[in-house]
Specification:
The complex is a heterodimer.
Chain A (H helix, E strand, L loop, with lengths): L1 E7 L2 E7 L8 E5 L6 H8 L7 E6 L2 E3 L4 H6 L2 E4 L11 H5 L6 E2 L2 E2 L1 H14 L15 H14 L4 E5 L7 H16 L3 E5 L6 H4 L2 E6 L2 E7 L5 H9 L19 E10 L3 E9 L3 E6 L5 H9 L6 E6 L2 E3 L4 H6 L2 E4 L3 H5 L6 H6 L15 H14 L16 H13 L5 E5 L7 H16 L3 E5 L3 H7 L2 E6 L2 E7 L5 H9 L4
Parallel strand pairs in A: 3-10, 3-11, 6-9, 9-10, 15-20, 15-21, 18-19, 19-20
Antiparallel strand pairs in A: 1-2, 1-4, 4-5, 7-8, 11-12, 13-14, 13-16, 16-17, 21-22
Helix pairs in contact in A: 4-5, 8-17
Chain B lengths: L1 H5 L3 H20 L7 H26 L7 H18 L4 H30 L3 H20 L4 E2 L6 H5 L1 E2 L3 E2 H19 L1 H11 L1 H6 L4 H27 L1 E2 L8 H11 L11 H20 L4 H28 L1
Antiparallel strand pairs in B: 1-4, 2-3
Helix pairs in contact in B: 2-13, 3-8, 3-11, 3-12, 3-13, 4-5, 4-6, 4-11, 5-6, 5-11, 8-9, 9-11, 12-13
Chain lengths: 492, 324
């Protein structure tokens, strides 16, 4: 891959990326969340098209426009979310979309033969006739690999293959990767787990902000240097100054021994008035799960939640809202907004009771006035409060979500990825708003995958790994290296 | 074309324009009989029953649900009300009111039963209300013993066949009242807003603190109560409760009215006035075709084409909106 560039509206995802992969090697691709790893691999697999650059396989420039093209060229992609039909057996899944036939009928024998051969060649321990729904995650991973190989893949991309595997399954996977290597396949291995690299990688390429930072042989690339290359840049200057938390500030949010299988394991922390606590960690570490439990979006299995010192029993989102907890969700389109409703209707949705007159009808005049006031305060750029939120930009949609929660007198604000996918200007406005909230004595918990954001906007940082708080870092001592090291489980 | 399709009013207005053109053509073909007051009143009376059912169905469909049981609920509430009316010792307006309330309670309970598996187990309403269709159908025959139950009191005559101002049949007034109340509830109350929010994005509504289970239950209860009102009107009109009323084309006509009126089966959008116009358009269409002696089988073909046109137009409009 040479000179690959890709832009999305408002974001430059990749610029001038060049990557080489030899046969019989494992190339580890590492980088922070959002560094561009997934986009790069999607381009290779034909799921997205590059704006610039070329791809050559065996020295020949190729055009990969569709996933089908990629498959024909021997590129096999194993996504983190498997493409497996749970009702079908392992054998049927391996042959899915590529079934051998005799006339119009399926050729069961050839299908079984093909699946058996791939599985045996690699010494996989995979029962072919068991429905996928009854197999472990490790076995599903093997199905995906077998599926790629049965289509003669020679370039195999694995996106965080070990994320959900047990130790033993990981050993089995690595043994198979070794055999693939020996057979001459090239493997691109995406991982967040630093400790795996010495076991599996021949070379390591670090991607940051859509560019290749460095590629070195694994043996010449120590862990701390990899981390430094991943984090690299100095903190962005556009974060406002956080006022210190007052000495005598009372605890507003108190979480003790929160448990919810499987994402949250005995989490305890508290947030004081005027304080922002950042939850850092890798995708899937359990950060979102923790805030969802506080918000009542999920019900915790165990644990005690207190707001302003009184215990809140949370069974559903209504209980949390009543206790003064506002949850600004990560996925605004799926969880935060009703896209087919107007700006006004979205802003008032969580606090509609405020606008009901004595006769039971909604006072639309007052509702409209409140919506206009909120959207003016947050500078939501919309032609009118009657505009459907579907037609707003990402940043303005996010402001509508915020407006919805600011309408109530919440004490605790849970921000999950508050600035994902929005432009720099809107980001600054959202940071300013968070400051406004803590000045008024609110407590904020912020989940963010953007390291600079966590470091720049938190008084304290809790690093989450495997559903647990693995480290607490004060703002004064937190550095990108320390956070990454704790999040990836590397020895700092 | 694009600009026209972007207009949010296009659905209802285009249908009205379509209907108007049709009216003028048919009126000239039918030598002026079509537009006569008596003919229009007749159309309104004919659509009353499917329109009231469609109003209840509109609530359900806006939440992205469906209620297939309404036809059978008309039958079962009708025979229950006839039994209740015949059993009560008093007469006059009190009898009428108590009978209606009894029917509404039965309809509400049926709607509540429809909603339980939908709310508790997240089962598709298509299945639960389909089961209720069968249950209520059978119960109507069991309760009535298989034949119509004649009303012993004459107190219901005014409701069923009476006239207001000497020329407007009473059932039309019932339809107007139901449409008016439903419009206010859907457009002006918190509950109505939640119905739209739920249909538009259930998870967002839940996280905003909407009591999703309660709102969902309520829409099926409303639909059941609307069915009971229709059962009541039929019973009063025929002076008997019959187990086969409501079980013919009523369900499909009600759904057709909702869909033609611009309510999305995917949930999140719709209106009561749209449903009313949808029912009116279908009624006018049938009436016009009768007046110019269109073959009754061809009438069904035309109705099918109109439904298809309505949803295709709606989908095209949405695609243009999505591109914009």
């Amino acid at each position: 891959m040479r000179g690959i560039g890709k832009s999305f509206p408002g974001v430059r995802a990749l610029s001038d990326v060049t990557l080489t992969l030899h046969s019989g090697e494992v190339l580890a691709l590492v980088g922070e969340n959002g560094a561009g790893k997934s986009t790069l691999m999607k381009i290779l697999a034909g799921a997205q098209r590059a704006d610039t650059g070329t791809i050559a396989i065996d020295g020949k420039v190729v055009d990969i426009a569709t996933p089908h093209d990629a498959e024909a060229l021997g590129v096999g992609m194993i996504y983190q979310e498997f493409n497996i039909v749970p009702q079908l057996t392992a054998m049927q899944n391996i042959n899915l979309g590529n079934e051998p036939t005799r006339g119009v009928l399926l050729d069961e024998k050839a299908a079984r033969e093909r699946a058996r051969k791939v599985v045996e060649d690699l010494g996989m321990d995979l029962p072919l006739d068991t429905p996928a729904s009854q197999l472990s995650v490790g076995a599903l991973q093997l199905i995906e690999i077998a599926k790629a190989l049965s289509r003669h893949a020679r370039i195999i991309v694995m996106d965080e293959p070990t994320a959900a595997l047990t130790e033993r399954e990981i050993d089995a996977l690595f043994a198979i990767i070794a055999r693939l290597k020996a057979a001459g396949a090239g493997i691109i291995y995406i991982s967040h787990r630093m400790e795996e690299l010495p076991r599996i990688a021949d070379r390591v390429t670090v991607l940051r902000d859509g560019s290749v930072i460095e590629t070195r042989a694994q043996t010449e690339f120590p862990q701390n240097e990899i981390i430094r290359a991943m984090v690299g840049r100095p903190l962005d200057a556009h974060f406002p100054d956080l006022p210190p938390v007052a000495e005598q500030a009372a605890v507003v949010l108190d979480v003790t021994h929160f448990m919810r299988d499987p994402g949250v394991r005995d989490v305890s922390f508290s947030v004081r008035a005027g304080e922002i606590v950042g939850l850092a960690g890798l995708v899937g570490a359990g950060r979102t799960e923790i805030v969802r439990c506080i918000a009542g979006a999920d019900v915790p299995d165990a644990g005690i939640l207190k707001v302003d010192g009184s215990v809140v029993r949370v069974k559903n989102p209504r209980d949390s809202i009543k206790a003064g907890i506002a949850f600004i969700t990560e996925d605004r389109k799926r969880q935060g907004l009703v896209l087919g409703m107007s700006v006004r209707e979205n802003i008032t949705l969580a606090h509609l009771a405020q606008f009901v007159k004595r006769d039971g009808l909604i006072d639309e005049k007052r509702e409209r006035a409140a919506a206009i006031k909120m959207s003016d305060e947050l500078r939501v750029r919309t032609p009118s409060p009657e505009q459907l939120v579907r037609n707003l930009s990402g940043g303005n949609q996010q402001k509508v979500v915020l407006a919805k929660w600011l309408l109530g007198q919440a004490r605790v604000f849970l921000f999950d990825e508050p600035t994902r996918g929005i432009d720099v200007g809107a980001k600054a406005e959202i940071y300013a708003l968070m400051l406004e909230l803590i000045k008024n004595g609110a407590a904020i918990v912020m989940v963010s995958s953007e390291l600079p954001e966590v470091l720049g906007m938190s008084h304290r940082i809790l690093v989450i790994r495997g559903g647990k708080i693995v480290q607490e870092l004060d703002r004064a001592v937190a550095t990108p290296d320390k956070v990454i090291a704790a999040a990836t489980g590397a020895a700092a | 074309m694009t600009a026209v399709l972007k207009n949010p009013w296009i659905r209802t207005t285009s249908l009205v324009v379509f209907a108007l053109i049709l009216i003028i053509i048919v009126n000239s073909m039918a030598h002026g009989r079509f537009l006569s007051a008596s003919n229009l009143i007749q159309v309104l009376q004919q659509i009353t029953y499917s329109c009231i059912l469609a109003v209840g169905q509109t609530f359900v469909i806006i939440t992205a649900g469906i209620d297939l049981s309404i036809g059978s609920l008309v039958a079962v509430t009708g025979v229950v009300m006839a039994r209740v009316a015949n059993a009560l010792p008093f007469g006059g307006p009190l009898l009428v009111i108590v009978t209606l309330l009894a029917g509404m309670i039965v309809g509400a309970i049926a709607g509540w039963v429809n909603a339980i598996p939908v709310v508790k187990l997240n089962l598709p309403p298509f299945i639960t209300t389909f089961a209720m269709l069968e249950i209520a159908f059978g119960l109507a025959y069991i309760i009535s013993g298989g034949s119509p139950i004649p009303l012993q009191s004459s107190a219901f005559n005014g409701v069923g066949t009476g006239m207001i101002f000497g020329k407007i049949p009473t059932p039309i007034l019932w339809m107007v009242v139901v449409v008016a109340i439903a419009t206010v509830v859907l457009m002006r109350t918190r509950f109505g807003r939640y119905v739209f929010a739920l249909g538009g994005n259930e998870e967002a509504a839940r996280l905003a603190g909407v009591n999703v289970a309660r709102v969902k239950t309520a829409v099926y209860v409303i639909s059941g109560v609307c069915a009971a009102i229709v059962g009541f009107l039929y019973m009063a009109r025929f002076s008997s409760g019959s187990p086969d009323t409501g079980t013919h084309d009523e369900l499909l006509e009600a759904i057709a009215a909702v869909v033609v009126g611009g309510t999305s089966l995917m949930g999140g959008q719709g209106s009561i006035y749209g449903t009313f116009f949808g029912a009116l358009l279908i009624g006018l269409l049938y009436n016009a075709m009768n007046l110019i002696h269109v073959d009754s089988y061809l009438q069904r073909v035309v109705l099918g084409v109109v439904i298809l046109l309505a949803v295709v137009l709606d989908e095209l409009r949405k695609r243009y909106l999505a591109q914009a």
